[in-house]
Amino acid sequence: MNRRYGGRRWTELYHELPYTALPEIRRQAEGWRNGLGALTALVGLLAVFKGRDDLTKLPDSAGRWALGLTAFAFVLLVLGTLLATEAAHGTPVGGSEYVTSGAELHKWTEDQLTKARRSLTRAARCCLVALLAVFAAVVLGWAATESPDTHLVRVRTPTGDRCGEFLGQGRGGVRLETGEGKAKKEVVVPLRNVRETTPVDTC
User: Fold this and answer.
1) Which of 16, 104, 184, 203 could make an SS bond with 179 (beta carbons 3.0 to 4.6 A apart)?
2) Averaged pLDDT of the chain
């Protein structure tokens, strides 16, 4: 072994590892719990306040998938937070106060260390899968969102302006498609009522 590594103090720390492993894993679990709690709150806020409006712009099937993925991610983050909390504080039943000897304390510590590591690993997996689900929902939203209309016009009439995608013009008048999503409809403005037609970027 390289003489740069090792030494008496490092040997002492190595022998102390069995006594410090459980507090250390508890400390790591606290950090994971706080992070997962923040992510859960963020996903919940986005789903409630932002997603409700955005999902209405998606086709029905894409909207259901995006909503399902977001809900799945939220559930996983809640589960991950609970697992990280269990790793940080242990189970409510039992504890070191019930041991009656050093051997029992040793066994209890090893059992708690195993459970804490298992719970923390599961919490990390829940976090990873939840983030992938959120990413998939975002990508689905980008892919399924209808492209903006590129031939928008504003038609001025005696009774007010009409704005929409220009579909064509004939004897019946100027044909426009107005509204968004399910509210889209075709309207015809009679030529006798058309005072001015102006291309616009947005309605």
Assistant:
1) 184
2) 79
Distances (CA, A) of 167 to 70, 153, 170, 186, 200: 37, 10, 10, 9, 14
Around Cβ 6, how many Cβ atoms within 10 Å? 11
Phi and psi at residue 32, to the nearest 5°:
-65, -40
Coil/strand/helix, residue 157: strand
CA distance 58 to 36: 29
Tokens of 156: 């001025």
Total number of residues shown for the chain: 203
Number of other residues whose CB lies within 10 A of the CB of residue 33: 22
**Tens digit of pLDDT for each residue in 129-148?**
998 988 888 788 777 665 55
Query: Nearest to residue 130, comparing CAs of 90, 164, 80, 199?
Result: 80
C-alpha to C-alpha distances, 19 to 105, 109, 111, 135, nearest whole angstrom: 11, 9, 13, 40
Q: Considering just the CA atoms, what is the radius of gyration of the chain in Å?
A: 31
φ and ψ at residue 62, rounded to 5 degrees: -65, -40
Distance between first and last Cα of the chain: 74
Residue 42 structure tokens: 């963020």
Q: Rounded to two decimals, what is the model's pTM?
A: 0.60
pLDDT per residue over 99-120, tens digit each?
Answer: 677 888 888 888 888 989 999 9
